[in-house]
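can u pls check wat happens w/ thiamine diphosphate
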Amino acid sequence: MATTKTDPKLALTGNGKKGKLYEGLTRDQIIQAYRLMYTSRRIDDREILLKRQQKIFFQMSGAGHEAIGVAAGMALKAGYDWFYPYYRDRALCLCLGVEPYNMFLQGVGAANDPSSGGRQMPSHWSYPDLHIVTQSSPTGSQILQAVGCAEGGRYLMRHPKAADSPSSDTTDYRRFKNVSFQNDEVTYVSLGDGTSSEGEFWEAMNAAALGKFPIIFCVEDNGYAISVPVEVQTAGGSISRLVSGFPNFHFEEVDGTDPVASYAAFRRAATYCREGHGPAFVHAHVIRPYSHSLSDDERLYRPDAERERDAQRDPVTRTQMFLLREGILDDKGINQLEKEVEAELQVAVDRALEALPAAPESVMNFIYSPDVDPTSSAFETQPVVNETTTADGKKPAAKTMADLINATLRDEMKRDERIVIFGEDVADCSREEYLKHKLVKGKGGVFKLTFGLQCEFGTDRVFNSPLAEAAIVGRATGLATRGLKPVVEIQFFDYIWPAMMQIRDELSVIRWRSNNSFSCPVVIRVAIGGYLTGGAIYHSQCGESIFTHMPGLRVVFPSNALDAAGLLRTAIRCDDPVLFLEHKRLYRESYGRAAYPGADYMIPFGKAKIVHPGEDLTVITYGAVVPRALQAAQKLEREQGVSVELIDLRCLNPFDWETIAASVAKTSRALVAYEDTLSWGYGAEIAARIADQLFDQLDAPVRRVAAKDTFVAYQPILEDAILPQPNDLYLAMKDLAKY
Ligand SMILES: Cc1ncc(C[n+]2csc(CCOP(=O)(O)OP(=O)(O)O)c2C)c(N)n1
Ligand SMILES: [Mg+2]
């Protein structure tokens, strides 16, 4: 697509006739645009004053970005289109309908701040009724989510029935999601010039181009990222030039200090998206008349002359001059308008300063869904095994963990049209014609866990993503924000790290930071773990404690087929984000196979299983260490008569403290065993809790068995030496029993 450049001189030229339109905007609309721009600037000035008076605690200005913001707001529709703005988008938010009072409430950290209830800094916008989605501080982490949001709207357009909710089911997240969509909706996402250096930006551009999603990327290029100028940030100094090769896009490059030209650019971009041609890219040249933030002094790296040059393009004064030149308002009219704004802001500030701060008792609210409790007994259902399935009268075949995960995904997809599955290689075959003509059988995941799902449910619902883990989780987060249920796969735990920003700073915290206004209950299935004989450093990692360390994220780690089925169903039906860890070594083990337990079998989160009851010693473990610990316990019992109580935690966050405490009260000895490296591992927390809360009941120190504090090596002899083996567990149990 061609780039359209608008000459600002042309856009801002008119003959002052009443009834004249400026790129479709009436004179009244231009007055309104000026009022919003002026309001935005004056809110910044007020906040700066309030910060200096220590009445608010942070300030981030939108100064210089007012014209492009108002233009975007006027070209798009609040509560209809979707918005992922960044911190400079104050004028956009005002234009969409955010009250100045609400902006000041965020500044003072008020309990009734509608965007976060005192949890987020000011200029971190979140207003669900206007479809302004909760924003965070990492530069660019909103972009992939915006792609997911646009993708979600498109999916709902093609699957309108998916928006329906079941009328009553306390174990179904859909009851608590208000899903809406418009066939020609557009998603807006903005970022600064510096942020276009983030990898996630490029992943998002690629995904949007591939899917032809209706999304407008707006780069607000003020020439600086804090103190780093654009020519150091962006090769060649122009982001427009760098992105110009992306197919399916409509491109605009515009003087973002000119509200009329910017409006025209946005109108063209929006029309392109609404008509379904694909995404659009608006590169807006703006200025930053104030320093980066109140903590920055730009005089340290920008000489006066450069700052004065910028000031010539100040969008507020430029628009004021335009109003005068066009005879739209005279001096008196402008004075009157500005006086009205000042009076309105004075009232808003006074009211906000009286607002009550958020209450300390509220800090634990909304980490998880207040509506669906996956630990409750509602999620405890019994397996329904059809004993008569085989013709020869034999018991139904025992299924592997891989079989039952596949079956659970299939059952849930049948039941819930909101489920979409994507990730690397998860589809049967991206080139559908090969499947149609039966030229190939299909892959369905490197471990075949999703085999057959694309064939059964279609490419809309099960598809391969580009090889980009942040994009997998970020897009899923955007989809889930729209009420859909992405069940995505990270091919190997070892490669989850590119998605870390999305998981830690977005997925796990969206509900909390928006004070329950938004949620994103994604399920991330991850193949984890070693004992593979040759898996080496990059196909053997554990590291679950890094994720259990994140409030807001449920972490599940089953050790057998039946638990995997029951827990995966709970993960899918619940209303929280879940990291579902599947041990590769257990996928097809003969240990822990089970008959298909039916399409409604669920296990509540946070309920451990006593794998082997005992009296003398408690062993707490999970995952692939369970069968190894069982082997060790049975040997110890046989050889030494020591009776071990073996607990499989199954779910790591939340975890079943009651079962641990009851067992240790009985045995007075505790050993925590896990596959990850020993130090700072998951078992460290369990051991600390036991030492702290069960001290009086212990007859021995709390011990741990885990991997050595190194990496998993390729050579099997080394792997054996590094990972905890049945014999290590046996010796530790024996030693502790004797203590
Ligand atoms: C991932 C990440 N890295 C660093 C920062 C610190 N930081 C905040 S804003 C900023 C510069 C952003 O520049 P740009 O994208 O051009 O936006 P502008 O502030 O100029 O509008 C930096 C480095 C951050 N918030 N997030
Ligand atoms: Mg910048």
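The pocket of magnesium ion (ligand 2) is lined by residues 192-194, 222, 224-225 (CB under 6 Å).
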